[in-house]
Amino acid sequence: MIGYGFMGAAHSVGWRQAPRMFDLPAGVEMAVVVGRNAEAVADAAARWGWQESATDWREVIARDDIDLVDIVTPGDSHAEIAIAALEAGKHVLCEKPLANTVEEAQAMADAAARAAERGIRSMVGFTYRRVPAVTFLRDLVAQGAVGRIAQVRAAYRQDWLVDPDMPLGWRLQKEHAGSGALGDIGAHIIDMTQFVTGLSVDAVSGVVDTIVKERPLQGSGTGLSGTVAEGYGEVTVDDLAIFTGRLSTGALASFEATRFATGRKNDLSIEVSGDKGALRFDLEDLNTLWFYDRTAPEATQGFTRILVTEAQHPYVSAWWPAGHTLGYEHGFSHQAVDLVTAIVEGTDPHPSFDEGLSVQRVLAAVEESSANDSAWVRVGAEVSSPTR
Amino acid sequence: MIGYGFMGAAHSVGWRQAPRMFDLPAGVEMAVVVGRNAEAVADAAARWGWQESATDWREVIARDDIDLVDIVTPGDSHAEIAIAALEAGKHVLCEKPLANTVEEAQAMADAAARAAERGIRSMVGFTYRRVPAVTFLRDLVAQGAVGRIAQVRAAYRQDWLVDPDMPLGWRLQKEHAGSGALGDIGAHIIDMTQFVTGLSVDAVSGVVDTIVKERPLQGSGTGLSGTVAEGYGEVTVDDLAIFTGRLSTGALASFEATRFATGRKNDLSIEVSGDKGALRFDLEDLNTLWFYDRTAPEATQGFTRILVTEAQHPYVSAWWPAGHTLGYEHGFSHQAVDLVTAIVEGTDPHPSFDEGLSVQRVLAAVEESSANDSAWVRVGAEVSSPTR
Amino acid sequence: MIGYGFMGAAHSVGWRQAPRMFDLPAGVEMAVVVGRNAEAVADAAARWGWQESATDWREVIARDDIDLVDIVTPGDSHAEIAIAALEAGKHVLCEKPLANTVEEAQAMADAAARAAERGIRSMVGFTYRRVPAVTFLRDLVAQGAVGRIAQVRAAYRQDWLVDPDMPLGWRLQKEHAGSGALGDIGAHIIDMTQFVTGLSVDAVSGVVDTIVKERPLQGSGTGLSGTVAEGYGEVTVDDLAIFTGRLSTGALASFEATRFATGRKNDLSIEVSGDKGALRFDLEDLNTLWFYDRTAPEATQGFTRILVTEAQHPYVSAWWPAGHTLGYEHGFSHQAVDLVTAIVEGTDPHPSFDEGLSVQRVLAAVEESSANDSAWVRVGAEVSSPTR
Amino acid sequence: MIGYGFMGAAHSVGWRQAPRMFDLPAGVEMAVVVGRNAEAVADAAARWGWQESATDWREVIARDDIDLVDIVTPGDSHAEIAIAALEAGKHVLCEKPLANTVEEAQAMADAAARAAERGIRSMVGFTYRRVPAVTFLRDLVAQGAVGRIAQVRAAYRQDWLVDPDMPLGWRLQKEHAGSGALGDIGAHIIDMTQFVTGLSVDAVSGVVDTIVKERPLQGSGTGLSGTVAEGYGEVTVDDLAIFTGRLSTGALASFEATRFATGRKNDLSIEVSGDKGALRFDLEDLNTLWFYDRTAPEATQGFTRILVTEAQHPYVSAWWPAGHTLGYEHGFSHQAVDLVTAIVEGTDPHPSFDEGLSVQRVLAAVEESSANDSAWVRVGAEVSSPTR
């Protein structure tokens, strides 16, 4: 595993739990975690149960005893590491977003295609696909439960930027983060929409905005002179994106990604409406799926609150009895299960790098639309911008 | 009262109940209801408790014993009737939308301004403002409960067009209805946004769409030859509108008006997010207001479900004890109370015709944006279209 | 109508609205309202739209032009008025609880039986039966939607006595009120249980309690000396009752009636569980019915939130389109509709005085059980107490 | 760890995750898991990551390298194992219920008291105390957030016995299980009530019942003759218990434990009402706590939905950012953390065996009350029954 931040902790839970709770077709050894700070990464390895730590990822991917590379670094390093790992013949799991630019994502997808010819597998970490309720939502759509899709309404709402005193961290600076709410959380609702509907977002119109434009500089002492940064600096990424997508069938989908939805902590919601029914999901209540069945008797139609904790629901039988809920982290175990299974069975896991690239293209198209008075932009036809 | 459809029933409840439940500063006599079909309008008068019925609205507004004209006809006749009534010195309550075009709405607002100089009052029937939870939401925003508004998320979702066999009624034909979901239900969320925030929607970008483009002609036998209409006809109004507004402070607001949200019956929802808190409301649960207070102690922050049935909540003390809920129709009583009070007290009631006109302008701007690749259109600067 | 308190207002809405919104088989004239205070009752008549007011109920029930007597006085006068009215050949609607004692209730049921032989109808006002969602719940149970009933869970929770400074009003004094939470709100959940299940509560075990035992005397000047009551007085009725009932099939039902459920304003809830499904209802959300269908496909089972506002739902077609909600007061209109219809059609309306008596017997049995260490008491076999 | 059923899996997650996510004051080695079937327990050890497996628990507790014994066997073996382990100087974690009878529980509590004098710690596994929302509920009560407690309403509702074809497993036979819904899930709501209120249940009145009295015998071929069990056998434990408790302050608490609440999967709910506020929790939505604050401004009072995922909430900072939810299993990690911490710090962990004993006494008192016409039974004064 390359990287050891918050995502490193979550991926570690996935690797630790999956072989203990599921019947995997192969064993999992948590071999080595890699980071630039030797002491910190050694601490992480000890805490999370990795056998070793290392500071040079190139050395690690060159090792014969490494089969799989899990990349959880910031987005700007994904392309270099993932391409190198694939070329070294390692299967790759890469945290989302696939990259910070379409060009990088394209290069990664190309590398993945070449590697696939040699039986090397790659996967991008849109873990929310593997929340059981989301997987089940997708299954129900695929089985025709909502019929022909008329519209989709998706939002990802957080509120951690509402506080104007929140300092200007690296996530708020374009040169480091590439994008703000759009790329970080907007990416999830684009992927989830494409995943659950089986349709692609083909064109977009939208606007990105920065609500609080200046924030306090982080006051850590810096530089040779020991001066402390003071005053305010400019926020150079979006903190709110509102956009509309045209799906491949012509249906419209509305999207909102925001960090200013006061009181909404991690509120990804999606609703798929069709001529036979509707399905909706909310990440803050992740064991629940709501299903409206228009084919039921009229007088008793309504949204049914399905507690997705039954043995017949996706992934659930490996865990606890009915009514015993799962949490955020379980998707990381499911991701590990599916990736290991695909590798052993010799199939290509999903979401593929191509799917990650398609999300990246939608993000770029949204930015281009926003820069062009919200004119509609065809996904894939966007003029790529320097940062995307 | 001119007109006697569904809105006539609702307005009649308002006029019937208001003087019985509230201390009005003047009495209310339900004098005469007007319609073109003498027999049908006589039936309506008898059923709803109007003293008389009539077929010629011009005669009625000329009567000395009529003080107030309540217009509940389709939108294309609003301007003619309202302007005539105002010029005849009658106070006017006009059902929303104010008119089918900006030009008509402008003429009505001009007539209202002239009438106001003579003490004649006019009001447009955006009744949802007077759901107690909505009025209270506005009051809380005005008191600073959410602080500076960062964003608004509003939607009005119904599903009565999901059925592809729903016939091509007049509401689905542009020449009669003027507009579809946008003008009928989109108007409500625009007005509510402006009402509760105290801000105006200054520019918009959006798209309107027609999901089911052909519908069965209504098969009622017609004409001397007794032929029955057969086959399919074109739906010429939108059934889905998604748009983004720029408020006068620069904050963004997202809007969705749809008749294809399967399972959503009459689901107007609004959420106002600010740096001190958030407020949200849902019309399908109309006695409830949700309030998030960022100034509360951190560990116990959350959305508070306020049951807006306490005596200190707007309008409630005239009705029932705490916990005894109100319904859809009560807003019509509150509208009657506020209008009668304003007339007696000599003040201008709200929403004024100017406020109705401002909604009309936003609607026209959305249509223009949609026709122009979703480019942003400044409200009031739109090139008016023939139907709006 | 005899009486003009809070219930008088609610019944007046019912009589006023029913003939305007429903097709009644006979007209309704709101003839005369009766109260002891001539001025106050005249005000009530004027406000609520009754043609006359009067102070002597005996005179009124003797009038030939009166067909129906609606009794909304406190419970201790129900028996005398109702029996006199029935004997005078008037149909009677009597507000719940039917009486303050089983003896009185029995005498009223006997009088109703005698009157029925002469075609005179009587009905007790358990209006919550006529909330559309409750009627529909009963219909679904009767159709077998829950199968064989395994258990019932019912509660009526309010919080208006939580405040220790709430003064010692007449409702808290046994000599005036007869009973506290048990008789006032416990009666509702007993009746609703019997109504929706079609089963009788045959035996009970339970406890009643008084949480705050002393309260401030109400400081109204009293007596010749003009002294103001000061200090504290004893609360002589229960404010909390918890009891278990054995239904006629042997199934158990749990009941709780309380005025100390902080934050619960008017929260009547009931859940009926059977081998084919379950149904639940909550009065604070009265347009909604939750239905769990065990015969549905396993993976999509869950509680379905039915918005009971469709035209095919009970009573709804007379009101508004789907999704337009009703409130507390609409049950009073439905009660008027059903009573007038029964009178004209010559059938006995429900709930009958016998049904009211059966509730009274359960209440008495609960009090007896509580007084006897919560021993089980067969309903109808209770040793009747002086106050019940 | 002695035992390796469903609870073995859950405890294993706790031991596996706790040292990886929390800063423990001592390391945790998952040494040996013990079961009677050598092959099966070896499989469990391999799967769950225990270093060894063994078949003789007496040998294991005699080992010098074992510090802590975790007992997850059925209740009838708890006393023997726990007492032996304590006498062997091992710290003990014993799954709930502490034992199948009061006598056994008493003996265990006595052994724990003796062991405590030697610094040996013991703890009973009421893990739901350590759901963050429950711990936080307790903290808020302790801080006075609800004021003086007026009443408690607790229920634990499941539905897995609704199906009449569910076979007669060991859990439905008194000789093996001791008790049914009462002892298994009723125990949880008794413990939780005592935990969150800080009060004891001092007396009870109640009824236990068996709704489906006969069930199909499990058809596994058995015995030398190879005969298959056929036909129906008697269910000898309760499947529904409804009881009322008198708390040490005199306040009443209502309890319901059932396996016939159709549609309720694992629905433990509790509501604590006091003169300053109320708190409620529902296990099917375990990241949420509802708080009603009567000291807030009246017009904005309501139940606040607190998402208990903030860093300042109990246990949460070790896991994920705000809004990222936890699940059922996390309580087992928290239990491990608190037990290890107590052992290292030399303090007695909670719930102690004395607390487990107190729950056992309440259970016995409920059974005695049920057998005595629901007469009130003082907890601790019950005549103990053979099976409890």
From TrEMBL, chains A, B, C, D:
SUPFAM superfamilies: Glyceraldehyde-3-phosphate dehydrogenase-like, C-terminal domain (SSF55347), NAD(P)-binding Rossmann-fold domains (SSF51735)
Residue ranges occupied by any Gfo/Idh/MocA-like oxidoreductase N-terminal domain in the UniProt entry: 1-116
Protein keywords: NAD, Oxidoreductase
Key word Lyase present: no
Boundaries of every GFO/IDH/MocA-like oxidoreductase domain copy: 137-280
Presence of the UniProt keyword NAD in the record: yes
Protein name: Gfo/Idh/MocA family oxidoreductase
Species annotation: Microbacterium psychrotolerans
Gene3D superfamilies assigned to the protein according to its UniProt record, in alphabetical order: Dihydrodipicolinate Reductase, domain 2 (3.30.360.10), NAD(P)-binding Rossmann-like Domain (3.40.50.720)
